[in-house]
Amino acid sequence: MSPLEPFGTRLRQAMDTRGPLCVGIDPHASLLTAWGLNDDVNGLERFTRTVVEALADRVAVLKPQSAFFERFGSRGIAVLEKAVEESRAAGALVLMDAKRGDIGSTMGAYAEAFLRKDSPLFSDAVTVSPYLGFGSLRPALDQAVLSGCGVFVLALTSNPEGAEVQRATASGGGSLAQLMLNHMADENAGADPMGSVGAVVGATLGDAGVDLDINGPLLAPGIGAQGATPADLPGVFGAAVRNVVPSVSRGVLRHGPDAAALRGAAERFADEIRVAVAGA
Fold first, then answer.
1. SS in 3 state form for 208-277?
2. How many whole angstroms separate alpha carbon 40 and alpha carbon 30?
């Protein structure tokens, strides 16, 4: 796939060929301990290398959580840089879970860090927060277009605290989350097979209660350890379920450090998701 193809096109191809699954790379302390690793840079490196070697050649998307690397400073960032490079070289799309949100030149600098092709952390997509106003994301949206990348915008997240902001009434009526989804739909207008601006919508929400027809991907965290199952996806996402990118982290990672067990868990989730989507 050409790196200049829009992210939405590349993601659709990856999901159709590798299965609709995103696996998080979340090396938090409890998982390192469960794998028999020390909570230090060496443990971080071994954990990350194992996940990448086991999964990058077969899953559609790998999603490293930047915070778990940043906590080790520059040495942790070096591990992240290598993971991004090696994952992309093996054919996985890399979604950097950074949840950045700021204004002006600062937002532009975040965009360059993750979406500019000559950056050591260049990723296929990045998560961002729109709650300084959707327009504050313009530097990231523009950089993504230039680089053929994607941007996943927080809309309705799976944490219960999110509702006090995301379900609040916007100035024009309707929820703030719906307003953000409307902006995403505008960005994706006319794209085929789907746009490159995605929404983050928790799979644990039950009936989302919003219009999710944004002509773009819908990242759905919450499958596995947070309680949602692939069978829940049609009920949450309705007619938009084919564009859902279900995200699983602990549900797969808890099977490490055995590489075959990691691959088996990912394949089982991907198969269950295919069945759920096909039956919707």
1. CCCCCCCCCCEEEECECCCCECHHHHHHHHHHHHHHEEEEECHHHHCCCCCHHHHHHHHHHHHHHHHHHH
2. 12
For the segment 29-76, what is each residue's pLDDT rounded down to a tens digit? 999 999 999 999 999 999 999 999 999 999 999 999 999 999 999 999
Give the residue numbers marked as catalytic. Answer: 99
Strand 244-248 and strand 22-25: the pairing is parallel
Angle at which helix 138-147 crosses helix 104-115, to 10 degrees, equals 30
Q: Which two tokens stand for residue 248?
A: 């699983």
Structural domains of the chain ordered from first start = 7-278 (3.20.20.70)
Q: Which residues pair with 125 in a beta bridge?
A: 95, 150
How many whole angstroms separate alpha carbon 13 and alpha carbon 194?
Answer: 11
Taking the C-alpha atoms of residue 167 and residue 161, their distance in angstroms, rounded to an integer, is 10
